[in-house]
Amino acid sequence: MLVTSIDDTVHPTCEPKPTAVDIQCAEFLAAVQAGDDARADELVATIDAAERPTLRGSALYYSQTLGWPVFPLKAGGKEPATLKGFKDATTNRRRIEAWWNGNPNYNIGLATGHAFDVVDIDPGPGGRESLAQLEQAGSLPDVHGYVVTAGNRAEGRPAGIHLYVKATGRGNRAGFLPGIDYRGAGGYVVGAPSSLGDHQTWQWLMPPSLDIKAHNNTERKVA
């Protein structure tokens, strides 16, 4: 598995000097795989304490810089705020500004299957074991972005993991391994720094690399 961010590339067969991003990724992943929810939550809290960009600014960054179609989700939730949901995802700047100017608390929906797919890993034992199996078998795709999901403190559910990988053209596969879903064409994920409230946020542990930037600069809308 190759792990790539905008600033650095690290391959497990090499021994470069680890960056802060590498260390955070390794510590969080180790905590999740070990079932150390307290340590995982501590790392999430550390990241969350840092100054976060605005939802509007992030939506514009995703759409205008990375070329990812975005759409609004209900404030404090995961449900679409538009009638057609992910089918309303677009890179049209005026529409995106109108959405977030109308409600700056809208969360961000990112349509999968265009520039990237997402491996969605549940924080429970099943997800940890399946992730370990993928890594041991060398079957985990190269990772080009790493997000810690919000979890749900009220339900005692710790944060999960979103691994951003190159788009394959395949569709969604719920439960393709125990504790792991695959988000591809026809799906979406919640984008950082969306929040469920009470500091439960989606956070980049490793920012997206340019390998999953949409290289077609024309305006895009999900059909």
TrEMBL record:
This is DNA primase/polymerase bifunctional N-terminal domain-containing protein. It comes from Mycobacteroides immunogenum. It holds the Pfam family Prim-Pol. It comes from the Bacteria. Residues 59-210 form the DNA primase/polymerase bifunctional N-terminal domain. CDD domains: Prim_Pol.
